[in-house]
Here is the input.
Amino acid sequence: MTSSKRGSPVVTKNSGAAAQSKAKKKTLAPDEEASNRVDVLFEEAEKFCTAVGLHKDLMHEIYDAENDWTFILKIDALLETATKEIIKSGLKLKVLNRFVGAEALIEFVDGLPMNGKTSLLHLLKASGCPSEESGFVEAVRRVRNAYAHNIKLADLTLIELIKQRPDKSHIIKNICNIATYDEANLIASYEKDGKFLRFSVLDATMRILFYAYHIALK
Here is the structure.
């Protein structure tokens, strides 16, 4: 039996209320509630994409990518953009009702690496982003680096790539969007239906876009 560990979008106390209420207008059956939640996430992801200059149907296009290599590289690029927006928002300095040093801040954040002590991931955690979300971003980056640094892996499915790694349990834990699971059975499910794993990754990505949009861009 499995249960979701990311049951609702992550928001700050005063942000995201409109989107959350949209998902709670009426009592729904479990399947209807899940479908409604996904619809809300897609809507919020579209808003994020539009706000950063990307076309609003990008999430659908990424999900339908021709292979997992393309899928993960695009997901990682989107997560990096969201991470930077969250960090920039957290570092803004407001003096006399105006933000100062915005251009220098943008240049500083855009130049940071994704990993390391002085990295985007380190600042993302320091900004208050929940560990489940930052852990997901970090796990996707590990898989992305594996794909990007070895072109021979380009035709390998995502689950086959993960299975080959010594840190496969860490990646599955952070990427699967499930709290309680049997690893062997979960891997078998992913092997049977690659879209199941893609959707788990997409769902978690949209939660982070939701978070980024409501605290940094709305």
